[in-house]
Amino acid sequence: MEATAPAPPPASTTRPLIHLRDVSRRWGKGSGAQLGVDRVDLMVGHGELAAVVGPSGSGKSTLGALIAGIDRPTSGSLVVDGTRIDQLADDRLARWRGANVGIVFQDFHLLPTLTAAENVELAVEFGDRRAGRRQRRARSLDALARVGLDGKRKRLPTQLSGGEQQRVAIARAIVNAPRVVVADEPTGSLDQATGHAVFDLLAGLAADGTTVVFITHDPHFTERADRVIEMLDGRIAGHTAAGIDVTVDAVLVGAR
Ligand code: ADP
Ligand code: MG
Q1: Ligand 1 pocket by C-beta < 6 Å: which residues?
Q2: Residue 56 CA to ligand 2 centre (angstroms)
């Protein structure tokens, strides 16, 4: 045991980009209530790559949906990039989400009747209503180029491999230059090599200053994360930042 008090956990940055205070998400009431996220406190800094791991049903997707503004906490406060998103009315939350968050899902969620370029253009429409047709097209092609897919812009999703579809989804997620990208098991439907290529793309976004919340089952990916958040039963069971265990309980125990 050390005689001196341990150093404080590494501050993510001066001001966190994502800040959850005592956030819960429950469904139903009383003894039959289901808890997705249970009184979670969490900060993620600007440009961090935060991996969220944990067994199935531990609350990873619920946490991701709250941060992305797809869902709302039933209690607690949730600030993303300076906005208290738990307090926004539904229409404002939808607009905020369109302009400020990119979301990537395991099964891509591309519209099957639209080409790669059109899928990405649609996101520009949601994110920036003032963008005209030519701007939408230009931004879409730029985003597709960033994921190495400008040559396949006219393909329908069925004419693309799984890895290519996921890259279109990433282009769609980044086309509005969001401050945060939430990816929920984005490699879950891909083979290992393709999954690693998708991870590399997301890690590159974080290196360029986008905050990335990367939800994964695969412990291989946690090695390269700045922050690893282990979920269990809706709570944070383990939390490592800069390679140091910053789990709240661990810090309290160390301070005794
Ligand atoms: P994970 O992504 O880690 O597998 P989820 O966040 O999907 O976990 O689920 C966490 C818990 O919340 C589970 O017990 C799940 O059953 C519950 N849950 C998720 N969504 C709902 C919902 N819409 N209604 C009721 N319970 C839900
Ligand atoms: Mg999930």
Answers
A1: 27, 34, 36, 54, 56-62
A2: 7
* Across 9-23, 28-42, 65-79, least confident range: 9-23
Atom number, ligand 1, closest to the C-alpha of residue 27 = 25
DSSP the chain: --SSPPPPPPPSSSS-SEEEEEEEEEES-GGG-EEEEEEEEEEE-TT-EEEEE--TTSSHHHHHHHHHTSS--SEEEEEETTEEGGGS-HHHHHHHHHHHEEEEETT----TTS-HHHHHHHHHHHH-TT--HHHHHHHHHHHHHHTT-GGGTT--GGGS-HHHHHHHHHHHHHTT--SEEEEESTTTTS-HHHHHHHHHHHHHHHHTT-EEEEE-S-GGGGGG-SEEEEEETTEEEEEEETTEE--HHHHHHHH-
Q: Which domains does the chain have, with CATH numbers?
A: 18-108+178-250 (3.40.50.300)
pLDDT digits (tens, 9 = 90+) for 52-69: 999 999 999 999 999 999
Query: Against a cut of 0.85, is the pTM above it?
Result: yes
